[in-house]
Write a structure and sequence with these properties.
Elements lengths: L10 E2 L5 H15 L1 H5 L6 H23 L13 H22 L4 H8 L2 H12 L6 H17 L10 H23 L5 H22 L9 H26 L4 H9 L1 H13 L5 H17 L7 E2 L10
Antiparallel strand pairs: 1-2
Helix pairs in contact: 1-10, 1-12, 3-4, 3-9, 3-10, 4-8, 4-9, 5-8, 5-12, 5-13, 6-7, 6-8, 7-13
Length: about 325
């Protein structure tokens, strides 16, 4: 019997180790609480997003420093200053619109509809990077759009609630961020790109909040606690743990666990905020989950030729 020879360009999927699984489960659980935390902000939605990104910067700086330990040459940021600024602006739009969406629709709607972003990123990759996606990805996009429409109540586009519309706009902005980061990864490591894009986002969101004349400073202990939890715990730690898991667990496992984030967010919102989902919203959420699962790399495949399209962000 002849042994099957894998192409040299293919890499076997890594076995899930204990650290990778723990990081994945913990990171996803932390991020799933983000939408609920936003509801308890005592500052404006853009101001809350600014605090979220600004307080994440010191933690991300530590992560980037540890990642560069032992390297003799620092990255040349001047070469990538323009795409870094655009990445930061795209992420600022994403987080800012998501915070606005949370206050204009149910947490479940904002989270499920926001999960369309990886599919939009694949479409952008086909347009800008000539990475031609298989037919199932295009089918996934159509399913996701249908699911978002169902969650919005199956109404005419002119009658879609502003929160649902902002959630979809946030997903589009995050897809743009993923594409710009893909471009930056040719010159920067992931922690450095994440750090500087977050710093740009914090500045942009602060300016936007000031121009919008929002309340900027938390006035209660709870308010300060929420912004710290959003910045340090949800963004820096939650995203950091998810990034750790990407290198230590199979793509299929990562996809399945991240797909559990919107349902868990919906359950948390039901328990904490009393936001019960209607049958129509449950149907729309199920369609979106099916679409995102359809767009992911096959779990049955023994090889990995492309990295995952993105990680959870909320």
């Amino acid at each position: 019997m002849n042994a099957k020879v894998e192409p040299e360009t293919a890499k076997r999927a890594p076995a899930a180790d204990r650290i990778g699984v723990i990081a994945l489960l913990t990171g996803t659980a932390i991020i799933a609480w983000s939408g609920i935390l936003v509801r308890f902000l005592d500052v404006g939605p853009l101001a809350g997003a600014a605090w979220r990104m600004g307080l994440a910067v010191p933690a991300l700086a530590v992560w980037a420093g540890v990642a560069r330990r032992g390297q003799t040459q620092a990255p040349d940021l001047r070469r990538v200053a323009v795409p870094l600024i655009f990445a930061g602006l795209a992420f600022a739009i994403d987080v800012g619109l998501f915070h606005i969406a949370i206050n204009g629709t149910k947490v479940a709607n904002a989270t499920f509809i926001g999960n369309v972003a990886p599919i939009l990123a694949v479409i952008g990759g086909a347009i800008f990077f000539e990475e031609h996606a298989p037919w199932r990805v295009w089918l996934a996009l159509a399913l996701a759009l249908v699911g978002a429409w169902v969650m919005a109540g199956m109404v005419a586009p002119s009658q879609v609630r502003h929160g649902d519309a902002f959630a979809f706009a946030a997903a589009t902005a995050y897809a743009s961020y993923l594409l710009i980061i893909k471009l930056l990864r040719a010159d920067l490591d992931a922690p450095t790109a994440t750090l500087w894009s977050a710093a740009v986002s914090a500045v942009a969101l602060t300016i936007a909040a000031l121009l919008h004349r929002e309340t900027m400073i938390p006035s209660t202990v709870l308010g300060w606690t929420i912004v710290v939890l959003l910045g340090v715990v949800s963004h820096a730690i939650g995203q950091g743990l998810t990034s750790v898991a990407v290198g230590r667990a199979p793509v299929g496992l990562i996809a399945l666990v991240i797909l559990a984030q919107p349902p868990f967010s919906a359950l948390f919102a039901w328990g904490v905020l009393g936001e019960a989902m209607t049958a129509l919203q449950m149907t729309g959420g199920a369609i979106i989950l099916a679409a995102v699962l359809l767009s992911r790399p096959s779990m049955a495949s023994p090889t990995i030729r492309v990295p995952p399209s993105g990680t959870a962000r909320r």
